[in-house]
Design goal:
By secondary structure, the protein is an alpha/beta fold. A seven-stranded mixed sheet has the order 3-2-1-4-5-7-6, sandwiched between helices. A two-stranded antiparallel ribbon has the order 8-9. Keywords: Membrane, Transmembrane, Transmembrane helix.
């Protein structure tokens, strides 16, 4: 932590080491987000993802390697995070969380911050609702797929997002319960609809969208920066 201490000073590093963060979703955005939070010195973390590595993930996801194909992303990321910081207190939940299970995890975890990197709409909306209800500070990542320009990535409140289809769907559901003050990372960059394939193979989603290596990582690093800067005050 010497380089981080040089930048932040001992007091802020000690503050980060005392914090507890939840990251749900360990794909292109969530994997790098969890890693950057761990590398910043967070003392306690819970990571959640039920998915296994597919080689189609290898263009953009931290846990996706030929050597990890078909392994649980949560287990691969756990090994990586513990190798970065053997002292971290890490809880690994290899589940797709929804409904009351989400509430149980958030309520029992006593988290200082939560990160939504979920790419399934119903689970994403439910997670955001529960974090807001339980007053857990959080940031939500919106759609990184189909985007190419890193200069357009922004941090805002959900109510201020625009030109993002996922953001529109999330806003629509959360407006019904009067929730809008959610920090969000999004890009208003237009998507070429020719790069989206509607297919049953994408279940539980309805489509597959083209991706480039760096964009999900930029979303993930931006989410991590929100967490780290907020926790330092």
């Amino acid at each position: 932590m010497s380089r981080t201490q040089l930048l932040l000073g001992d007091e802020k590093v000690e503050k980060l080491q005392s914090k507890n963060v939840l990251v749900v979703g360990l794909g292109g955005v969530g994997g790098i987000c969890a890693e950057m939070i761990a590398r910043a010195g967070i003392g306690k973390m819970t990571i959640v993802d039920a998915d296994v590595v597919d080689l189609s993930n290898a263009n953009r996801q931290i846990p996706a390697l030929h050597s990890t194909e078909k392994r649980l992303k949560a287990e691969v990321m756990a090994e990586r995070i513990r190798d970065i910081n053997p002292a971290i207190e890490l809880t690994v939940i290899p589940e797709f969380i929804e409904g009351e299970r989400t509430r149980e995890i958030v309520q029992n975890g006593h988290f200082d911050y939560a990160v939504d990197c979920i790419d399934t709409l119903s689970a994403k909306v439910n997670f955001i609702k529960i974090c807001i209800e339980l007053k857990v500070p959080m940031v939500s990542s919106l759609g990184a797929g189909g985007k190419m320009d890193p200069s357009q990535v922004k941090t805002s409140f959900l109510s201020e997002t625009h030109s993002c289809k996922l953001a529109r769907y999330v806003r629509k559901h959360l407006n019904k319960v009067d929730i809008s003050n959610v920090k969000a990372v999004f890009s208003p960059e237009d998507i070429d609809e020719d790069r989206v394939i509607v297919t049953e193979k994408a279940l539980p989603k309805k489509s597959i969208i083209g991706t480039i290596s760096y964009m999900p990582a930029i979303f993930g690093c931006t989410c991590a920066s929100v967490v780290i800067r907020d926790l330092m005050g």
